[in-house]
Give the backbone structure.
Amino acid sequence: MENLDIVHIPILKNEIINYFDTTEKNLFLDCTAGEGGHTYEILNHFPFSKLFLLDRDPDLLDRAKRRNIENIDRILPYNINFSDFSSEKLSENNIKGIDGILLDFGISMYHIKKSKRGFTFSGNEELDMRLSPDSKKTASDVLNYSKEDDLFRIFYDLGEENWSKKIANAVVNHRRKNPFRTNRDIAELVEQVIPRKFWPPKVHPAFRIFQALRIEVNDELSHIEKGLNNLIPLLNIGGIICCISFHSLEDRIVKNIFKKHKEEKVVEILTKKPILPSDEEILINSASRSAKLRVAKKI
Ligand SMILES: C[S@@+](CC[C@H](N)C(=O)[O-])C[C@H]1O[C@@H](n2cnc3c(N)ncnc32)[C@H](O)[C@@H]1O
């Protein structure tokens, strides 16, 4: 196999395979290809299956395809947003419904460690944070052109950052002389605004601000909501949908949409409480520590 130097470890993969094992196992949809780790597991566990593979980031879709090159004839790749996936794609391929859908939200380790788009706190990279090159605004545009009130809302609503007001004010003062250009510009400003005694113990103090900027630039939450509402109807009866979220904003959307579909008698919820990674998994892959898996079955 080509040496791709994969940096993303797929999360809760055994749990997901076990849920998918209860379905017909013919047709899967991996909505968030990333580096193709979950796709690899699915295609190898279910050797007669086919899989739609999506990523809005063309670089990641390409990496996922190259990682799964030995099964490429069973992959139907699309460089699109999962919120735009519709029954048209099924009929184009003479397919009636899907047996298993996976959504593994957010960004991959590749984005943080290798993309050079400013997702990391370290180094000095352009503060871009766009997942798709078609998105209009970058993270530095958000910092340089948003009104102070809007910055506050972004930091508070999307980052759940208690220091949002002070940080929004500091951003507006800073950009008068020095427009934001790199990840270091904003990371250092947040380090100055939040007193050291209030820094979180294990993560960078700008962690929440980076999360907020990323969600805003890519409009992540509305795509999750629109996506789930569009995707659940594509499942065959007995089909399974698995969602891995990484913060409470994502998890709340999944929980509410599953609940709504349960009330409409469209799905049965298989996870009363979300499934968390084991201590062992967190030890091997610390990036999994905030993951929550919710699963529903079409009825
Ligand atoms: C956590 S990673 C997935 C990792 C993957 N499961 C693996 O094992 O390597 C999330 C991926 O979803 C993509 N993504 C995020 N939001 C998306 C959306 N709305 N539509 C399509 N792809 C999206 C990101 O570009 C990223 O590559």
